[in-house]
Design brief:
Blueprint (H helix, E strand, L loop, with lengths): L8 E4 L5 H11 L3 E6 L13 E2 L2 E2 H4 L5 E5 L7 H10 L3 E4 L5 H5 L3 H7 L4 E6 L14 H8 L19 H24 L4 E5 H8 L1 H10 L16 E5 L4 E5 L3 H10 L4 H4 L6 H6 L1 H12 L4 H11 L3 E3 L3 H5 L2 H5 L3 E6 L3 E6 L23 H7 L4 H9 L5
Helix pairs in contact: 1-7, 6-8, 7-8, 10-14
């Protein structure tokens, strides 16, 4: 089956999470992603335990569907390789701190002279301009400075981060959207362009309704745990043996919910009649609902609420989610053969297009696994490759 980004080549200078996740998604869609690693390899290969083969689980999570080449960009001889790669590439992605790409000789201004059709995406914490341009940009810093962390966690408890690097991951998604948009523009104009993608910009956009709550009232949003600031009840509740989430997003659902839990009187109570009433009297209502839902086990409530047509779900552990029958049916956990680790489990791809679905074709590469293969594709002779290796330009 065809892939949507077949014959598109990505030159990947990224490391850690935001950049590698973005280029992995492009690889899932069929792009030939060449991962340029420094001597010794990507640092995240050593971010363990746990280990899968010789690399960390962290590295393995975001580097499938890529080919690895080791190049020491600090050596002048590397320019000959980079130049040939750029001529044959469509996209460049880097997530160095601002200024480093220029120091390494791989800036957009330089590479676009070689290939004016190149689409060049820089991912950084604060962008390539502005007062914070040179501040270190990490997921946790972006979460803290965007306001998102201030509204994440339980009331009267310290702010907390997400369980995954959500600033990195969401920025990667916006990077891919930008790259695909630039590819479409290039089809119309023949011109490449530069993309300045910042973690903080993306997190500010993700404030969505919380920002507009602030615009409307001037009041700072607060941490509410799993609760929703504008909908009640819409949160997690403890049961007799676990936790469930309940999402009562309309008055019709409120009516169904009250009947399902055996408390039709609640929908007649003027304090709880409309969602606006329930938001105002949240504390009193949640206290009563918590008492009711703690009285029966999770499976009981899920059966009752599903029968009534009220959206609800158990809060699964990571292991439970990965072993869930629906997750497996959708192909979101798959096995691939790795050259060092043997058969390993990987997460599937969500790109389920009818004609050109995404695919998991190759496992994460070993360090420099494709160096010689790529150099030969670029036209280097075996003698030239040996010379580059002896000078420690490549590995």
């Amino acid at each position: 089956m065809a892939l949507p980004l077949e014959e598109v080549r990505v030159l990947d200078f990224t490391r850690v999470m935001a950049g590698p996740f973005a280029t992995m998604l492009l690889g899932d869609l069929g792009a030939d992603v060449i991962k340029v690693e420094p001597p010794g390899g990507d640092d995240t290969r050593g971010w363990g335990p746990p280990w899968i083969g010789g690399d960390s689980g962290y590295f393995m999570s975001v580097n499938r569907n890529k080919r690895s080449i080791i190049i020491d960009l600090k050596k002048p001889e590397s320019w000959k390789i980079v130049k040939k790669l750029v001529k044959k590439s469509d996209i460049v992605v880097e997530n160095f701190r601002p200024g480093v790409a220029e120091e390494l000789g791989i800036s957009y201004s330089r590479l676009s002279q070689i290939n004016p059709r190149i689409i060049y995406c820089s991912i950084s914490g604060f962008g390539q301009s502005g007062p914070y341009r040179d501040k270190p940009g990490y997921d946790l810093i972006a979460l803290a400075m965007s306001g998102l962390m201030s509204i994440t966690g339980e009331p009267k408890r310290p702010p907390v981060k997400f369980g995954v690097p959500i600033a990195d991951l969401t920025t990667a998604l916006f990077a891919v959207i930008s790259i695909l948009s630039a590819l479409y523009w290039r089809e119309k104009t023949g011109r490449g362009q530069y993309i300045d993608m910042a973690l903080l910009d993306v997190q500010i956009l993700l404030l969505t309704h919380q920002a507009f709550n602030y615009f409307a009232t001037g009041t700072e949003p607060e941490r509410m745990g799993s609760a929703h600031p504008n909908i009640v009840p819409y949160q997690a509740f403890q049961t007799a043996d676990g936790y469930i989430v309940v999402t009562v997003g309309s008055e019709k659902l409120w009516e169904k919910f009250c009947k399902a839990i055996g408390r039709p009187d609640l929908m007649e109570n003027p304090k709880f009649r409309t969602n606006a009433d329930r938001v105002i009297n949240r504390e009193e209502l949640i206290e009563e609902l918590s008492r009711i839902l703690r009285s029966k086990p999770t499976d009981f409530w899920l059966e009752v609420l599903e029968k009534a047509g009220v959206p609800a779900a158990p809060i699964l552990t990571v292991g439970q989610a990965l072993n869930d029958e629906h997750v497996k049916y959708r192909g979101m956990v798959v096995e691939v053969q790795h050259p060092e680790a043997g058969f390993i489990k990987m997460l599937g791809t969500p790109f389920k297009l009818s004609e050109t679905p995404g695919s998991l074709r190759t496992p994460p590469p070993t360090r420099g696994q494709h160096t010689y293969e790529i150099l030969r594709e670029l036209g280097f002779t075996d003698e030239e490759i040996r010379t580059l290796k002896n000078k420690h330009v490549v590995e």
